[in-house]
Amino acid sequence: MKACHALAILTVVIACPCYAQSQLPQRDPEFKGKIGETYKESTPSYPAPVRAPKGSPNVLIILLDDVGFGMCSTFGGPVPTPNLEKLSANGLKYNRFHTTALCSPSRAALLTGRNHHSCGTGVIIEMGTGYPGYTGIIPLSTAPVSKTLKDNGYATAMFGKWHNTPEMEISPAGPFDRWPTGLGFDYFYGFNQGEADQYHPTLYRNTTPVAPPKTYEQGYHFTADMTDEAIEWTRNVRAADREKPWFAYFSTGAVHAPHQVPAEWREKFSGQFDHGWDRQRELTFENQKKMGVIPADAKLTPRPKELPAWKEQSDDAKKVFIRLMENYAGFMAHTDHHVGRLIDSLEQSGELDNTLVIYIVGDNGASAEGGLEGTFSELASLMGVQLGLQSTIKRIDEIGGPTSEPHVPVGWAWAMDSPFQWTKQVASHFGGTRNPLVVHWPKGIKAKGEQRSQFHHIIDVVPTILEACEITVPDEVNGIKQKPLEGISMRYSFDDANAKDRRTTQYFEMMTNRALYKEGWLACSRFGVPWTTAGKEGDFLDSPWELYNVDEDFSQANDLSAQEPEKLKELQAEFLVEAEKYDVLPLDPRMAERMDPRNRLEGEPKSDWTYYGNRVRLPEPVSPLIFPSSHTITAEVQVPEAGAEGVIACCGGYSSGWTLYIQDNKPHFAYTFFDLANSQVDGTMELPTGKVTIKSEYEAVGPMEKGGKLRLFVNGQPAGEGQIKRVGFRSGGLEPFEVGRDSITSIVPTYKDKGDFEFTGTIDEIKFELSK
């Protein structure tokens, strides 16, 4: 009886080869040897590692940032992308593929195969609120594809921009379960937040902060660095195991602002955009039709009334706008070059043929966050501050270099989204949500150099990967029941250009810009403009709705809301059904207003912080949030006989931040706020040797833009005072808060040539207190 029962169980296991995959990680293997009294009477059975199905492809996801549908030459745009063209010529390009219109949401949807609100990421992580669709926390019930592939025998790694760890968890205290290495990636090299200075990034290797391998002066650029890392990792995996497939998520910070690129790449485009954004859209549109990227009957959508015409710009403005666009184009070409290096390395090693490359050209449309005039500092724009044209004119020759954080004006972003209306953030229109997609897999796709026009969404990538790899979607991961995948595999379209669309419905929503696609129709409503990042006027519920038959109207050019009111009502009602189903509610139009990290603190906000020693480093959101409030900083230090110098504490970087430091054996405090206000308070008293108390007192005098008075003290004695002209509630978040050094970029030029400018004494204790 027992033998028959065992045989029955064995039969079930053999008949269901995917049994182990339904629960991840897979169970410990059964011991199949024999155990006797000694090893001589025993037979070993060493536990075999989990292996992917034989012949499984490698998987490479390439994701660019802030690239419009009409930017790259592969899809008719003005920027040559020969490496993208090479992949498309031997693969497939999709011209009706969609994203969510914003960074973190697209990335969460990409990795989980669920809609962005379903995985808690209805907005970027920095804007998370306490509603299920907007936490910025990917739920345990939506495990990413990296976890599924890893637990099915894949090596996994992530390179570049992550932007899916809750902001308050990007700290030495963790928790680290929502960092890349906690979500299925064996290895991570990149940055955790929404953007990075390309010359001075805040980098992590796994969960440890690391410095770039060389300096800007030595030729450093992050895109090149992450490419080097990816090439090295893929080669080492193959060197260690000839058969083990790998999954690499290669997610560039490019071409998100700051648009920083070596001058020789910008110079390649000198004079190529002198005709302006209106003409550029026309040229791109003509080229897209010629190439067949868009249908012959597609229409070029007109310039929105909120955008100025090129011909209306002054000569000075045109000069600046052209330079910003040349720089942006150079950044894109530079990115294509380095992606090409990675692809070439796979071709050289013989791995490219069986690597499923899914190349998504942008996590949303081109960005309008630079404002109508562009900006020398995009960080300022995100904080609701427009520096104005004069700021960029004064520093035009620095654009693209290490002292700039530039961003193109809205007109160029709109031009790069040709033929569609609008830009990034605007989920109601394809300019925000339609991105080029190229799929390359010679071993798995018969068709070469063809175009596909099925309607698909970024949530469709995960089921496509799992079907290609013959891996079952897990029901449970780490004991947590999983939400069903909401994506639909695209593999049916790989070898059939005329295959009927399998995605018939898809909602879109971002900060109340919303739409509902269903069976060839799309109803949509837009609220405000994307360059107004704070204080949008009016009520989004009053925003009009539009209606398009996008099966016949490729570019959303012909609004049918007046002619088809019943169809519009039907789709409006359907949007609410989808919104309730996928945690889209409550709708919230705010942007910058939600970016204060204090919104995500548990309990009452802190009013004091104490640290010990010279080596404290924390991300700004979990550091002392002292500005714009009145506060004191008190440092108890030991000064050696020879005197002391160096940074006691600081937060931020060269464009925005504050620093309390010692130079010439005297205390100093500096606050820089982009080009708007740079304040310096110099001490008048030298530090004695031995134990010394250094204190700064800041007294706010009104709103942030009014600043306040700052006083310095040494051992209780007045040691200098001055005015801090203007402050913000954060420094931009790209560089950390530190005690004992300023390790990435110098906040003030005073100590720029001194490296990290480490404090040469000992910091026993430093305390930050908000005034009552």
UniProtKB/TrEMBL annotation:
E.C. no: 3.1.6.1
Cited InterPro entries: Alkaline_phosphatase_core_sf, ConA-like_dom_sf, Sulfatase, Sulfatase_CS, Sulfatase_N
One Pfam family matching this protein: Sulfatase
Keywords, in A-Z order: Calcium, Hydrolase, Metal-binding, Signal
Top-rank taxon: Bacteria
Signal peptide range in chain numbering: 1-20
Gene Ontology MF terms: arylsulfatase activity; metal ion binding
Keyword Metal-binding on entry: yes
Class of this enzyme: hydrolase
PANTHER family named among the record's database cross-references: ARYLSULFATASE FAMILY MEMBER, BLL2667 PROTEIN
Protein name: Arylsulfatase
Native source species: Bythopirellula goksoeyrii
